[in-house]
């Protein structure tokens, strides 16, 4: 979807149409969750601090998020997807991979299916979508950004390697800013540079991910589209109005996060074996600390105790803390976890 949250707000409020809009917290320490294309022209981007966004675009209008509305629109969009294929792998509320090799419409051209889906989405929701079409997930993801907004782009098999060669490594899906900087430090700036590296060297510097980088530099990606992909983690975070340094203040911020994580796990019937603490400092440097147990975390009190232990290990903090968060990962169904614990007990 194109600027999904912001586009929904502009659709529902005519006064916002054609104006720079940011969805998120307008307060000084808020963060932009989504920006309209009018705002992006000023350099406003998602995850940008609100104070920076306002500096770039003084006319920026902040709108609070309405997640229930976004979820309902997402359900409408996925219902359209399901008319074409059961192989749908959601990435978020507004993005998914679809495998249409064999499809419910018996349509041989993926480009025609993409055009139909985009038209149906606009007809049903009044919102525009963009599509990337290719022979693997990596290239389809790259292509999806190539004709935004309200467009589509296809990378055919004979075009894949050449398309990748000309891109900066920072444009590769799965390579973030920190990894791109490490690659640049090795003299690797483009897809062509990446392709020239031996796989052993990439694995030496990047571990298992090095094998993935070696493959995508050759436009190879054999990952299938996995329908109903299981959730890998559940997390929550809070941003402080003012920087915090003391344990009691930081722990107080963790309390609501732990409650949200545990409530979600209870509703979903999940338990997690790995607890992770997230801390973001005043300069936006971010660190995480994790602890994995033999069995799943059994209660919110145990999650609290682990989170507090991880927090104490960071004190004294080198600077003020602006955000803390907690997540649970290595998730398993609660029924399965209880069965495992009973078996271990016997």
- Percentage beta strand: 15-25%
Strand elements, count: 11
Question: Helix count?
Answer: 14
Uncertain runs are 339-346
What is the terminal separation in angstroms?
51 Å
Q: Determine Rg (CA atoms, Å).
A: 22 Å
Query: What would you say the CATH architecture of the domain at 233-345 is?
Result: 2-Layer Sandwich
CATH class of the domain at 233-345: Alpha Beta
- The level of helicity is 40-55%
The secondary structure category is: alpha+beta
What's the order of the H and E elements?
A: HEEHHEHEEHEHEHHHHHEHEEHEH
CATH T-level fold name of the domain at 233-345? Dna Ligase, domain 1
The overall pLDDT, averaged over residues, is 92
The largest β sheet comes out as: 4 strands, antiparallel
In spatial order, strands of the major sheet run 8-11-9-10
Envelope shape: globular
The name of the CATH superfamily of the domain at 233-345 reads DNA polymerase, Y-family, little finger domain
Structure described in brief:
The chain has helices at residues 4-12, 37-40, 50-56, 67-82, 110-125, 137-144, 160-165, 177-185, 191-195, 199-206, 208-216, 247-268, 300-312, 334-345; strands at 21-24, 32-35, 61-63, 88-92, 95-98, 131-133, 152-154, 233-244, 270-281, 286-292, 321-333. It has 346 residues and is of the alpha+beta class. Among the domains are: 4-65, 3-Layer(aba) Sandwich (MutS, DNA mismatch repair protein, domain I); 233-345, Dna Ligase, domain 1.
């Amino acid at each position: 979807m194109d600027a999904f949250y912001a586009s929904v707000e502009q659709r529902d409020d005519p006064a916002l149409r054609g104006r720079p809009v940011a969805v998120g917290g307008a307060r000084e320490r808020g963060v932009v969750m989504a920006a309209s294309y009018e705002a992006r022209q000023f350099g406003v981007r998602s995850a940008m601090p609100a104070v920076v966004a306002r500096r770039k675009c003084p006319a920026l209008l902040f709108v609070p998020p309405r997640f229930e509305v976004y979820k309902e629109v997402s359900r409408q969009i996925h219902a359209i997807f399901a008319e074409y294929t059961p192989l749908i792998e959601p990435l978020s509320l507004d993005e998914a991979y679809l495998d249409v090799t064999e499809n419910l419409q018996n349509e041989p051209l993926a480009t025609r299916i993409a055009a139909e889906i985009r038209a149906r989405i606009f007809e049903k929701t009044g919102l525009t979508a963009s599509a990337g079409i290719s022979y693997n997930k990596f290239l389809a993801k790259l292509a999806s950004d190539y004709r935004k907004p309200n467009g589509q782009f296809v990378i055919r098999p004979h075009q894949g390697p050449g398309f990748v060669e000309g891109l900066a490594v920072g444009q590769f899906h799965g390579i973030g800013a920190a990894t791109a900087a490490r690659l640049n430090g090795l003299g690797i700036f483009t897809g062509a540079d990446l392709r020239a590296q031996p796989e052993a060297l990439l694995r030496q510097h990047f571990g298992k991910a090095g094998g993935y980088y070696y493959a995508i530099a050759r436009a190879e990606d054999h990952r299938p589209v996995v329908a109903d992909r299981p959730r890998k983690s559940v997390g929550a975070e809070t941003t402080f109005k003012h920087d915090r340094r003391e344990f009691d203040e930081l722990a107080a911020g963790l309390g609501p996060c732990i409650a949200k994580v545990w409530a979600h796990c209870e509703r979903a019937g999940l338990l997690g074996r790995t607890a992770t603490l997230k801390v973001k400092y005043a300069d936006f440097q971010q660190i995480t600390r994790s602890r994995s147990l033999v069995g799943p975390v059994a209660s919110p009190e145990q999650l609290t105790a682990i989170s507090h232990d991880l927090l104490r290990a960071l004190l004294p903090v080198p600077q003020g803390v602006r955000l803390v968060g907690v997540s649970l990962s290595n998730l398993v169904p609660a029924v399965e976890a209880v069965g495992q614990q009973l078996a271990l007990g016997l």
